[in-house]
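User: My collaborator and I are trying to settle a disagreement about how two of our proteins should look. Neither of us wants to argue from intuition anymore, so we agreed to look at predicted structures for both before our next call. Could you fold the first one, then the second, and keep them clearly separated?

Assistant: That sounds like a sensible way to settle it. I'll keep them separate. The first protein:
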Amino acid sequence: MTPNAITAFRLGNFKAFGDIQRIPLRPLTLIYGANSAGKSSIIHSLLLARHGFDTGELDVYRTKIGGEAVDLGGFGQYVYQRKRNNVVEWAVELDPKQLQLGRLSKLLESVQNLTVGITIGLGFSGFASEVDGNNQVRVESFSLEADGQKLLNMSFCDDHKLRLNSLDYTHPLIKQVIPESQPLIEAVINELAPTITTQVFRLFPESIQVNGKQLGTYEEDDKQELVQIGFWLLRLLQDLISPITESVEREIQRLRYLGSFRSFPPRYFGLLPSQDTSWDNGGVDAWNTLLINHQVRQKVNAWLGDAKKMKTSYQLLVQDLIGSDGINAEHGKLINKSLNENLLSEIQKMVSNLTDTDTLIDTWTHSIVENSSERLPNLVLMDTRNQTYVSHRDVGIGVRQVIPILVYAYGSSNALVAIEQPETNLHPKLQAELGDVFIESALGENKNNFIIETHSENLLLRIMRRMRQTFNNELPEGLLPVTPEDVSVLYIEPIGNQSVVREMPLNECGELVEAWPGGFFEEGLEEVFS
């Protein structure tokens, strides 16, 4: 199992989910369910969090990395049942041992699980008939738990900050440092709590303040006014909150997203400006990776040409495009150079011989390409059957749709990769082959973590097969072992007016411990035997 700091996240009052749902994550997380059950909502909540970290914007329609593929519709659309007085609940569970916490690591040695949570809302008051029109979508509260026991909670206050409204001084983390015999701790917390606030930066608290002053700005005389335990307590809060929230942000910044309909660039996409926003979403950036990354291009070519996989005759190559003006200018320079060096007779001899002519053309072509300041690289596919060059727009849609998936798998490292419907336009056998691609990318040297929303049974069957082969010591050479700790299979089930997340555990033999709810994936048997 590859290290993954985020072990699960929680989601409530978001799109199809009313009550808080827990979504466990592993290197390979597969999400199944009927259409419109809420599968994509899980990924969209991560896009919202990533957008919040990137921009601080929460009343968002199109997210930065979702681009045109995802339209959240603003808070009024993504909050559960469109009830604007609800708050969206979002939290992540973390393995402290996988976080970069510095000196805090010692304090958290015995902690198995950290949970960092926020709520997002409009500040609706139960005493008001409607939301204040001046209110903006904001972080309403922040909480921190350790091993299921809440350590602290902060909530939005009138001065547009988060104020500490609860701190569990009996929590084992506090007891590690403060002796239980300290009689002042409760009194100090009760006195200081109303004065402890923090500004929210993007999604999380930024720095602790007391009566509006930064903790680090207190002079020695000020410290004397605070009891020793109180000042220590404030320092502990800062030391706890900052490294943990920074770690969560780093983890979410790992997110990459590929929607169900992968975009592709224009025919001569080497001419597309690099700053064009269409590179940033929909999978178009995958083609740019193929253009500049030789190793990824080789791996994709191997998959395209493998007789047991895509079995096509296409190979990706990079060509240099040069304008006619640039070619003419370089030709002139080369001719003048040849004449000046009295090589005209040599050129005439070479022209009289086809082999020598080809050599001369190759030499000059290479020189033109090397010396041109206007050359632009362009990605093409060569049909190896007849050595014909074609554009990515000339091949089947299945090829075009699978290439970005391969690039994300082979070209990403230590990333959290969310993909919707990787099986689009693929034959069932190729859907199964993608299972091996994801296994290699997640459990091999790339160490990616995948969240895959899918309807493909074949994809899961391949992963289950590798688990069975691992257990029976029958794994083919070159393939990586897969265990239940590497795979999370989730089923999203609508119940009443909301959806719930059911975990479908697999045993060591790659078998489902429980049957699919509602006879999911039994349609084939029904069609054959009914």
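The second protein, kept apart from the first:
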Amino acid sequence: MDTVSDFILTRLSQWGIRRVYGYPGDGINGMIGAFGRTEQPLEFIQTRHEETAALMACAHAKFTGQVGVCLATSGPGAIHLLNGLYDAKMDHQPVVALVGQQARSAMGGDYQQEVDLMSLFKDVAHDFVHTLSAPAQARHLIDRAMRIAMERRAVTCVILPNDVQDLPAVEAPPRSHGTVHTGIGVTAHAHTPDPAALKAAAAILNSGERVAILAGAGALDAHAELQAVAERLSAGVAKALLGKAAIDDNLPWVTGSIGLLGTQPSWTLMNECDCLLMVGTAFPYAEFLPAEGQARAVQIDRDGRKIGLRYPVEIGLVGDAKTTLDALLPLLHQKEHGRWRERIEKSVAKWRETVSARAMTDAEPLNPQRVFSELSPRLPDDCILTCDSGSAANWYARNLMVRPGMKASISGGLATMGCGVPYALAGKLAYPGRPAIALVGDGAMQMNGINELITIADRWQNWDNPSLIIMVLNNGDLNEVTWEQRVLGGDPRFEDSQLLPPFPYADYARLLGLNGVRVKQAKAYLGALMKEGDSGGAALRATLKQWWASL
């Protein structure tokens, strides 16, 4: 007879889940045993740490649009999940956490490793955190966790006592105080606002003479619609960091990133516009938006709670970015590409010249801006691009030009270190035929990346295209914090806190059976990166089976 754990895996498979990221432990043994028995197309991905399991579940959600699922044991395993789950919460990603718990009979007194899991998860999974107390609840709790995660773009959590995990499954609970079986189905969201709201929004946008668009993660699937609306309104487009892949960076009126890691053209765009269209973003730094009262504003977001959160808007359109923009487009007047668009394009062209000049400045041993600038045109069109927090994020935001077809992400709201390699690995597992590239600093690499190289070494031979590249910027320093110390305090870095112990990254990669390259000069970097003259990325896909460069 199937157990509750067997049923949970079957139910997850019915929801379309194909992999679960996690780490075993005695509090979750029933679920781990079920993985060994399951005939479902469901894979258990053993990570090196529960934090990276949650980060990978978050990345899976970001890159696939599906729910990410992670699993951990009770006590320390559950605690370790939290950072990755907060990454998902703050970037509004649907993640379900399955967490083990010691037997219910032991909960009345002290028990080794046990913590109050309901209290532990009530903030990060405040939309839904429940304990499975009887087999008949399993279907209802798993279904609710999945539905709420998808609809609210949120983290949910189901706590699984280990004695309940091994009880006989109840696949169809009695209707008395239970649920009626209606099968798997995704709740339909209100994808498009009503015609009156669309007409009112169009009137505001048509009235503007200097229109600016700010695109975020909610616009990632609306590339063509976003471009069409921008062309119709003769607008410039700035992007929140999580929306970097929402529109082609090479378009002459795309000003690039906004905010602390933003560009001068984005700053100018926001300070001089008289009309603002925000699409799928809850960009947190209001000081980089137009001054209140300067611009009339329209906001599109699938979550009505985000409307007007950062900037006062006249019309809020609650709906999916792609379908809402498509419905809005016929109502918009074609504006002439006059002085406003010309000013934007001149500002963008001048900025790109500045960035290029900065990148070519000589440095010893190597200017990191050049690394990113030279990499940018050589990126394959179908690559999955990840970046860690720290100074690498500066060059990712400003020097990399993302093109259509690429997927790219970073830890946005939480800005946690140690996400870059787990993100890239999750992307590769979801799309084994696509090249994945992680851009990380040495601090982040020492924090999480080195451990997950073991996972990569164990799995890369199973991939259709084994190109997974990890580029480590190795300066022996926690550079972003050092910069902050100098700017804010005016004092030299506190070396005991900032200097990192030397580590032979490339040698360690080779020890694991991967390729490792250490580069100290720009010429050597280009030779390692790509065959001379290859701007399309073919050599990257064809010859670099597993490249791990320490720069």
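Some points you might bring to the call about the second protein. The mean pLDDT is 89. The radius of gyration is 24 Å.
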